[in-house]
Amino acid sequence: MPRPIHARxxxxxLKNNLRVARRLGNSRIMAVIKANAYGHGLLRxxxxxxxxxxxxxxxxxxxxxxxxAGSRQTILLLEGFFSPDDLQLIAEYDLTTVIHNSxxxxxxxxxxxxxxxxxxxxxxxxxxxLGFTPEEIPAAMEHLKSHRAVRDVTLMTHFSxxxxxxxxxxxLERFNGLTATYRTPCSMANSAALLRxxxxxxxxxxxxxMLYGASPFADTSAQQLGLKPVMTLGSxxxxxxxxxxxxxxxxxxxxxxxxxxxxxxxACGYADGYPxxxxxxTPILVNWQRTRTLGRVSMDMLGxxxxxxxxxxxxxxVVLWGEGLPVEEVAQAAGTISxxxxxxxxxxxxxxx
Length: 353
Description:
The protein is an alpha/beta fold and 353 residues long. It contains eleven helices and 18 strands.
């Protein structure tokens, strides 16, 4: 028999989450499917999101793979192209590219077709990661509007605090002040802005984490937002034992029992993508009952407390995150974010749909 760990991807939940995004306004949806669709599987997720007007990712070869699989949506390269050589593939597969620096702007002359390239011009409104400053945009816009290869330009920006108390007001003011000068489509909203700030919706919204059933907010659950978990990471108990008070569990003995304790070992570890830094007390489900992890996570195994789960035994089902246990709750306990956990799922974990 194969090792019991597995990830189950619920495509109906994915479609539900797309409908939630759709109900929030009249903007076109650019569904973000970078990082292998946040660990969920690029091709299957893209197929399930066919009702979105576009999909966004990073790698030109992934984009080409989508086209060859039959996708007819707008496909946006979120970081643009990394070499002028990429422009041949962008033309061949009718891809849309972000332009975020002067080197990319200067390389556009290598684009092989006249009047067919769609460009999203990125504005740095304060995140200071990618994009032209508002002062640099007029020259960049003039370059693109007069370029022989460019058909359409969309202005975009990205918010740094949409999921936090600071919000988007400062960046939104900068972006609106700039875009008022141009008659061109705009895109601003990521998942957090889409959910909380209707003024940011613009012509295109770019939902990411919400599509996969996780909340971008620390103070609001996915369930409260009407979202359903798409990935459930499951496994089984492979060992059960009783330990006495004072006995340790796992490497370095980070957990020591305060009393006689029944423990289980789960076939899942950091080589599967579960966070090694998840401490004792991280929530986990055994036979659909909530309990806690014990001790340090190993490469292939982790310990769980079975003291209050009388029916737990070798073969009992375990949910690491997903159905019944929100991934963001596990992430919070581990001092990270749900994005990292979903993207970290490793290739050795079988995935079913």
